[in-house]
Amino acid sequence: MEKVVENSTAFLARRYPPLVEEKIKNRYRVRCNNSDSRLSVSQLTEQARGCEVLFVSVTESLPRSVFDALSDTLRVVATLSVGVDHIDLGAAKEYGVKVLHSPDVLSDACAEVGMMLMLNAARRGHEADRMVRSGRWTGWGPTQLLGKELTGKKLGILGMGRIGQAFAERARAFKMVIHYHNRHRLDPSLECGAIYHETVDSLLVKSEFFSINAPGSDSLKGFLNQEKIQLLPKGAVVINISRGDVVDDDALIQALKNGHLFSAGLDVFKGEPDIDPRYAELENIYLSPHIGSATTETRNAMGFMLIDGLDELKSGQRPTNCII
Ligand code: DGY
């Protein structure tokens, strides 16, 4: 892309992994948010003024006002995430700002966290850990910490993209039977025996375990509400590695309290990190602080993918990770 020239100025809204920052610094004049804390929209707008390339992550919101304010110089937004729901893509497009994200390379890491949530929620891993640490463990017991077995259970996956497929592959190794709903049915060669449901409701009715793996979007906000939860079989387990606002917190908490759900495992939350405090009071929920892609290998790969994408833009190519 001809407008991003060598020695452009880049603003790093968060500290990226050291190897990634090193590469960025070899290519751009870099200004950083050295505090590495989440910047508000006005702080971001102020600190990023004059930059051509803006490196962000899921913690930064980029509404239209950011593009209005930075459009004189801003050419590319690069986000260290697969999700782009924090960016006003319509505004970016209007101003001719390219948006790069980092899909694919994080699918395995996210699928691993999906398994971590599912195993802990089903086998009560967090409760077991607390029992041992607190000294409350009085020894093996025939009815102690009885959980729910994954083997042979139906796992319903909402969103069978790259992360959904990686998750299904792992769940299959645990002998789960995979059902899914997706905007489009997968090619049979990718289904690997998974059963497609044309409607989410028909998927919910079957799901002894239900995992939300679809990308966050306006249309999914509040999707898992009381009505949808009631469609799940009694004793189901809910997993969320998508976005927190897909879940109606009141409805989920009520279903965990009244026993309609056995348990839940969440890696994402509405308004994170300020999560609904009632979650912390429940035993039957495993809570994880949005670490889906948090491995050194994956975060490096995500960063390198953004840099490669920028290099391609510079040489006039269209990178595969360019959303607009
Ligand atoms: C993403 O990439 O969208 C994740 O939520 C961040 O780990």
UniProtKB/TrEMBL annotation:
Q: Where is the D-isomer specific 2-hydroxyacid dehydrogenase NAD-binding domain?
A: 115-292
Q: What Pfam families does the record point to? A: 2-Hacid_dh, 2-Hacid_dh_C
| Xref: Gene3D superfamilies | NAD(P)-binding Rossmann-like Domain
- The organism's place on the tree of life at top rank: Bacteria
The GO terms describing molecular function are: glyoxylate reductase (NADPH) activity; hydroxypyruvate reductase [NAD(P)H] activity; NAD binding
Which residue intervals define the domain D-isomer specific 2-hydroxyacid dehydrogenase catalytic in the entry?
A: 24-323
UniProt keyword list: NAD, Oxidoreductase
**Keyword Ribonucleoprotein on entry:** no
One Gene Ontology cellular component: cytosol
InterPro entries given for it?
D-isomer_2-hydroxyacid_DH (IPR050223), D-isomer_2_OHA_DH_cat_dom (IPR006139), D-isomer_DH_CS (IPR029753), D-isomer_DH_CS1 (IPR029752), D-isomer_DH_NAD-bd (IPR006140), NAD(P)-bd_dom_sf (IPR036291)
- Say if the entry is tagged with keyword Oxidoreductase: yes
Q: Which family does it belong to?
A: Belongs to the D-isomer specific 2-hydroxyacid dehydrogenase family.
The name this protein goes by in its record = D-glycerate dehydrogenase
Which species?
A: Vreelandella sedimenti
